[in-house]
Structures are given as C-alpha cells and as structure tokens.
Design brief:
The complex is a heterodimer of chains A (304) and B (275).
Chain A (H helix, E strand, L loop, with lengths): L1 E12 L2 E12 L2 E6 L6 H8 L7 E6 L2 E2 L10 E4 L11 H12 L4 H9 L15 H13 L5 E5 L7 H16 L3 E5 L3 H7 L2 E6 L2 E7 H7 L3 E6 L5 H10 L4 E4 L2 E4 L6 H10 L4 E7 L3 H9 L8
Parallel strand pairs in A: 3-8, 3-9, 6-7, 7-8
Antiparallel strand pairs in A: 1-2, 1-4, 4-5, 9-10, 11-13, 11-14, 12-13
Chain B lengths: L1 H10 L2 H26 L17 H4 L7 H5 L1 H22 L1 H8 L3 H38 L9 H32 L2 H20 L5 H4 L1 H10 L17 H25 L5
Helix pairs in contact in B: 1-7, 2-5, 2-7, 5-7, 5-8, 5-9, 7-8, 8-9, 8-11, 8-12, 11-12
The chains are: A alpha/beta (304), B mainly alpha (275).
Amino acid sequence: MTSIRTTGLTKDFGDLRAVDNINMDLPRGGVAGFVGPNGAGKSTTIRMLLGLIKPTSGEAEVLGHSIENPSAYLHRVGGLIEAPAFYPALTGEENLRVFAALGGFARSRIAEMLDVVGLGDRGGDKYKNYSLGMKQRLGIALALLPDPDLLVLDEPTNGLDPQGIVEIRSLLMELGANGKTVFVSSHLLAEIQAACDSIVMIDHGGVVYGGLMVDLLNRNSPTIRAAAENDTDTVRLIELATNAGFTSTRVNGAIEIDAPSVWAPDLNRLAWQAGITLKELQATSADLERAFFAMTGNNKTGTE
Amino acid sequence: MRAFRSEWVKLSRRNTLLGFGGAMVGFAVLFTILAFVNAGGGNVDLDGGEAEDFVTAAMLSLPEGSVFAITSVGGFLGIIALALFASNLAGEFNKGTIRMLFVTEPNRLKLLAGKIAALISFVAVGVAATLAATVGVGALLAPGSGVETAAWWTSDGLAAIGSAYVNLTAAALVPALIAATIAVIARSSAIAISVGAAWFILGEVLLGTFWDSLAEWGPAAVMNALAVGGAGGAGAMGGAAPVIAYGTAALLAVGYGVLSLAISGTVLATRDVTS
C-alpha cells in the first residue's frame, strides 16, 4: 500500500519546466523527507498532490486516489503549504474554527490540537500578534485537525526555536510510528535525517533519489579529514592514504580521505612514523548533507 | 452548508458587524435624518449650491414614506456590499488563505457557493437592520418634521417596507456579485473595490453621456432601478428617475448575477493556486 505514488508527474509554467517527470512511491506509515535545492520543484509537487495545481502531464495517486479528484482523498490529508496563512484579525482558535467548520471536523479537536502544538494557552490571542514560530505551530495544528492519514508539511520548522524544532520532530516521529504517513520538506537536512525513515530527493525538477534514508547514507562512505602542520607534508599525507588503498582529495589545505573512521588512528600512527605532525584529524560519519551535495552536485546553494 | 457556516465564523465577528453592518445602518440613518430635516423646513445643502427641497412632509406621510429616504439612496448600500464581497474574496488571495481553504474543501464550486450564500445572507441581515433603523429613526423624527406616520402602519405601508427590503437587497447584490467576480479575477481587494466602486458611482454615468442606451441595461442603472422599485420610482436624492421597468431590472439583475457567478466559478475552479 502506498500513500503517494507519482508516475511521470510533470508541470510546466509557460516555458519553465518546474517539475520534470517525477516518479516516486511512498509507502504508508512513517516519516518521509522531501528535499532538493531552491527551485527544484518541491513546492510545486506538493501543490499538485494537494490539488492546488494541475499537472501538465503524468499521473499521481494519493491514498489510492487520483489527484484529478482531490475530493476523494483530501479529507484524509493534512497540509501545510509554505508559510502558514490565516486571518490576521482572528484569534488562533477562531482561525481553526473557520477551517473546522469548513472541513466538518469535530470542534473538540481545536483545543486538543492547540495543546498538541504548544499553543494551548495562546489560542485566544489574535493571529496577527503571533510570532513566526507560533504561526508555524498554528499551521501544524490546522494540518492535524482532520486527524489525517497523510500529513504533507512544507517547511514545518520554519521560524521555530530549537526547542520547537525538537518538539515538532518528536511529534512527527510519533505520528509516523503510530501508522500515519508524514511527508515533510525542510531546509534543515539534519532534521530530515533525524526524523525521516525514507527520503525523496529532487533536483532540477526530477527525482535523484527515492528510498530508505539508511540506504542513501550507506551510499556515501564516511571520510577522514586530516591536515598536516606543515603544508609541504600534505603531498606525503596523500601518499600515505594512497598506499593504504584509499583515495583522497585536497580541500582548503587539508585532505579528505574516503576511508572508514576506524582507519583514523592508523593514519595518525603512519603520519607520526613518517615524521608528519597532524594539526587536524577528524572522522566524519555519513550524513544527509554530504549525501545531498553529492547527489545534487551543488554545495553552494543550500536547500529550498 | 459547511462553507456557509465557516464563512459566518468570520462575518459574525464584531469588527465585521460594526464595519460593514454599521456603515449600512449609518448611511441609512444619516439620509433619513437629512430627509426629515429637509421635510421639516431645514436647509439641506447637498451640492454646495442653493438649498433645495428634495422631499416634503407630504411625501414622507405616504404609506411608502417610511422607506423613502433609504430607497432613494439604495445605491450606497450596493457600494458597501460591493466592498464587503470584494474584500472578502480578494482577501483570501491576498492573505494566502485560499490555498488552505481549497485543501480543506477541494470542491471549489461548493466553497464559492457557501461563501457567496453567507455574504448574501449578511447583506440581507444588514438591509433588514438598515430598514429597521430607517423606520425607527423616521418615526422618532416625524412629529418634529410635521410628518404623519399613520399611513406607514397600514397594509400598504407595511407592504412598502417589505418591497423595499426585497428591492434594496436585490439592488445591493448587483454590484456585490460583479465585484466578487472582479476580485476573483484580479485577486486584489484594492483593484476590485476601486474598479467596482468607480463604475457604480461614476463610470456608468459618465459613459452614459456618450452611450444613451446604457441607462436601459447598465448594472448601475439596474441597481438604481431596483432600489427605487423600477421606472415609476423617484430618482435618487432628486436625480433622474430610472428608465428601466421593474420587471426588466429584475431580469437584468438575475442575468448579471448568474453571469458573475458563472465567471467566478469557472475562474476559481480552473485556475492553479501558485502563490
């Protein structure tokens, strides 16, 4: 059973191809990340899944229903698209009441969801007086209002303080563990790595990776970063790595060696024996940020 | 029905009630006072020129005298309704709430129908409050202005109040529905209100000086004709009497309404929500 399945999903805005032939298959349950550089097509894809824009070509299913008929599935979906948008003159509680009435959701869930996102004592405040983080929390409360089977969140941690980020991460993981499917895009790759079981990575409108997080991380081997105290020893340091069967790359006066972290003590020993004093030696484990840059070939722009 | 109830959560807020409802009642009370002061012999200099009698105590003593003032300026209610509809619909785009509304209620035509129905009901309640205020203030001012109110409470008088309610509500909805369409197309409250108000206050009158037949079918002419009960009615504040018969005005109003809703619905249902 899949929660989201797309086949050749494509969207053009005039001459601009915003989403290019996206194929993804997201299982039900768990937390899935959706990452890509700015302009990669994440928000456009999410908008298509939520019935806000129509694809130029291709097909997609959400909870088993075609996106051509959003009424068939959106009552089981909670969505937060980009920045939360509410009525400034209404209180947080009143804002949720507008949408609860529209969606036919139980009014009792309003107070419940305000509590869940930490706004239990601020629901009576006007939305225009909310901080960015509070607005974001209200957006998440709205997404949770229908008790959705699928939660689609676009940048849910925008504007949240560190404690808020941790709280929302815990909430999403809990929802995922309880059988809900959470599909979340975020700038914060470390957050995506911490919270998500699977990931869809897109670039230039197309999917560059879709699958389990652990498989993606395993694709990108860990590295050891080392720097000699004397710059002239850098070449000899590269030779030591090469002789041990590892490839290395010079990066800003240091070298990065594609080797497991357990080889770091060996490198330290070999360098000492060769009379090289190391001023830096650091083993880095595989992480999403490195995988992201490796997959997208872009280490300058960050994510959308 | 859900969209209707949802919209009323917003409409029933004090600011909206006082803002739009208060404006409708306020205008009505103001013009009622002007009418009774004028009928009582006071000088009401509306155009900066020589003071003139636009209403007499005898006119206000007729069965339809209780609603004379408000039906004569019914167009003002239309402009307020126009602002309400335009700001409500365009505001959803300005604030970005339209995307959350569409995710919550994916059937966009249902959403539009519910919103429009709620706004129409708000106008209907507003017009009722306006009439109540007009008649109430008129009854209070009548003795001092030499106006006999006995005829107001006869069956003819009550029928005149009933007709005024239907006519004013229908008249107000002509500019309101057209403004709603402009709002959906332009996605801007400022554009929708300024374009709509400019047309209904001045644009059609100016254009009518070059295009005579506009007075027979133009939306502002239809609004004014409906407000005063058709071609036989008095012109607004002593202005030119409408030339459109009541039945024709009603048919044209229905036509404008249906056309406006069809355009709004088509645009809303087919357009991508990209921002």
